[in-house]
Amino acid sequence: MPSKATLPETGFLRLRAIVAPHGVFPVSRSVWGEGVRDGRYPKPVKLSERVTAWRVEDIRDLIERTAAA
């Protein structure tokens, strides 16, 4: 199970810091993309034209919900 301890308190995470093999959430990029479209995973934030990221707080909430289930 992913660990919240490895995440910063606030800020943004790029996709490679979220998904496997090096991220905190054990899913592939394609499964993550499906989950975002379906609403299972948090929506990204566009930081610039070419940069997409997710709020750390949203990822922490996702980890907590997944651990509780």
Would you give an account of this structure?
The protein is of the alpha+beta class and 69 residues long. The protein has one domain. It is 33% helix and 16% strand. The chain has two helices and three strands. The protein is globular, with a radius of gyration of 11 Å.
Tally of separate helices: 2
Looking at the chains present, what oligomeric state does this protein adopt? single chain
Beta-strand percentage range: 15-25%
Helix content: 25-40%
How many extended strands?
Answer: 3
Strand order, sheet with most strands: 1-3-2
Order of helix and strand elements from N to C terminus: EHEEH
Number of domains: 1
Gap between N and C termini: 12 Å
* Average of pLDDT: 92
Helix/strand structural class? alpha+beta
Unreliable spans = none
Radius of gyration: 11 Å
Biggest sheet record = 3 strands, antiparallel
Inertia-based shape: globular
Q: Briefly, what is this?
A:
The chain is α+β, with helices and mostly antiparallel strands and 69 residues long. 33% of the residues lie in helices and 16% in strands.
Topology (elements, then pairings):
Layout: E1 12-13, H1 29-38, E2 45-48, E3 51-55, H2 56-68
Antiparallel strand pairs: 1-3, 2-3
Key words describing this protein structure:
69 residues; alpha+beta; three-stranded antiparallel beta sheet; 33% helix; globular
